[in-house]
Structure formats: structure tokens, C-alpha cells
TrEMBL record:
It comes from Colletotrichum lupini. GO terms for molecular function: catalytic activity. The lineage of its organism: Eukaryota, Fungi, Dikarya, Ascomycota, Pezizomycotina. It holds the Pfam family Amidase. SUPFAM superfamilies: Amidase signature (AS) enzymes. This is Amidase. InterPro entries: Amidase (IPR000120), Amidase_dom (IPR023631), AS_sf (IPR036928).
Amino acid sequence: MTPRLHELTATQVLELLQNNTVTVETYARRLLDHVKETESIVKAWAFLDPGLVIAQAQTLDQVPVGERGPLHGLAIGVKDIMNSKGKTTTTEFAVTNSGPDTTNPCDPKRTPGGSSCGSAAAVAALHVPLSLGSQTGGSLIRPASFTGVYALKPTFNTISTEGQKAIAPIFDTCGFFARCVEDLKILADVFGIEDDEPARDMLLGEMSIALMKTPMWPTAGPGTISAIEAVTVILRERGIKVEEVSFPPEISDPEELDRLQQVITQAEARISFLREYRIDKDNLAPEICEIVENTARITHKEREQASDRYSHIRRIISDLARGYTVILTPSAEDEAPVGLGDMGRATFNTIWTVSVPLYLSVTLQADVL
């Protein structure tokens, strides 16, 4: 069956738009019709102006083919902490663990994850082929896992966060969602994400994967355990070396790792939300007020010590990863929780928000899965 226009990936539809095989207006109208058909259930959008979308589409159709940009005519969702004229939903200031009634397109009874809930849901529901989100703890990787789409959380400072509401600048990262790896590459190229080494071809048999269950593995549910086991078998059947790599004892305490991230995040978020607190604290979520009021009593000394410790951990994990082509690690504790009141925990994400800055690039010559 030939896929309908709204079902196409960004890579597929971009070729049609660039060649004038399909007009931007036709494409936009098909997407808007699909949003109209499904948004009452998905609830992915905080703001969407169909009239503005059509007006912009008509303007883009007047651009000569030779002058069209790399994203010409593509529909892209934007998280509601970024300055734009169309917004996908998020939790309050991307901090709280509940809020919008966005549902999971795979199962409306389940959460899509947070805080980039609308961005992930919009892609999964075929409202748009691409969307922008952000991650301070696990707000890109976890929603992607829950909704069955792809996400890319780049290394810190790879993409400018100008125009994005800050939470904890040391961790805040702009990233994106897509329904295939090829589409992630489109945005990576547009944002100028580069590696220290040029991409090179690699046979699957030359690959070496580090399976890092991390100290958080005891919290993994049956869904995560079976998924990791299954993909490990598949990779090995393809001739790829998969080696389990354990964290050394000095960074094997999950409570310490979580505490370090919380200390740094809350110390920075206190500064980020001070303005909103002073202007209109009555309309802020209690969690945000508690951060600004520093109810956790985090001291400057604690923050400094936590930052130093995190820098040390980054070096250790970076050293562990050297010599491997890929790190394989869980994205979430388990499948998406039932209900919309709990968006899941970032247990398996926060340690990677520290980042492993290897900047390597590899092009595979065969499909892995």
C-alpha cells in the first residue's frame, strides 16, 4: 500500500517538495487534516494556527526551486519552551513530572513521557515528521522510548539554546525526534553537528559495542530487560562483538549519581526561575517554587563539590567507552506507565546527560536490525 502524504518520512517528503512534485500547501493541508482527526485524543499541541500554517505554505510555494533551503516546506514541531509560532506541549517549564494531558499515540491510556511529551507524541502520531525538544535529565530519550520514535540528544553546546527557556544551562540540550535515523541526520546537518573524525565505512564485524547496564540496572523492569537481551542476541547474530562493561566501584552508587545531578540541576534552576517566581509565584507549580525557595537547602559548597565530582565521572565514563564503536544502554526503566499522572523516571538517562564527548562518526555498510 502506498503511504499517504502525512505518513511519509521527512527524507521522503523533502524530495517531493524540493522537486515540486507536491506543493507545500498540499502537504500542509494533509497534515492539518490528520491533526484535526487525531488531536482530540493525542493532545500534542499547546498552540497551532492552521491559518498561519497555510499562509506560510503558500509563501513557500512561490520560492524558486533553485533557492529552496534544506528544510523547505517540512513541518517541524517545536517544544513549548522555545520561541516560535507553533508549540507542542510540555510540562510546566519542562520541570514538573505531570501537567499536560498529552497521550501516548501507541496507547492513549499511557503517558508519552516528559517533558518533551508533545514533541514525541506529534512525531509518533504522524502530525509532523520532525520535532524539536530538550533534555536536562531525560526529556528526549525517555519520551522517544515510550512512543516508539527516534531521538538524538547531542553533546552539550553542540546546538545553541538561544531562544529556549533555561532550566539548568550546564545540562540543557536542544535535540530532536524523528521516525527514522535518516531524518535525524537531516536536522543534524542543518544544525551543523560535526564529529572530530570524518565518517568512515565499517563492516558490522568490525564493530565493538559496550553494553553498559549502569548501576541503575536493578530498577529495570521486565520490558527493558527483555529488550536489552533481545537486541544483544540480534547484534551478536550479525557478527558484532557485544561486551558487557561494568562501572568501577567509585561510580557505582546509584543514589550518589542521582543526588549529584539533582544538586547541580536545582542549584541552576533556582537562578533560572527566580524572575518568574518574583513576578507570579502563585501560578507556578509547587515543585518550581520549592526549587527557587531552596527547600532542599543546597549550599554553594555542595554545588561546587557536585560539579567537581561530575567532571571526574565524565572522564571515567569517557575512558570506559574508548575502544568501542557504540554504547548500548537502556532508555527507560520499563514500558510507558499507565495513566497520565506519572511520566516515568529518568533513572537511566541522567548519567548520560553528563555526556560522553567522543565525537566519533561511523557509516555502517549493512542493516543491523
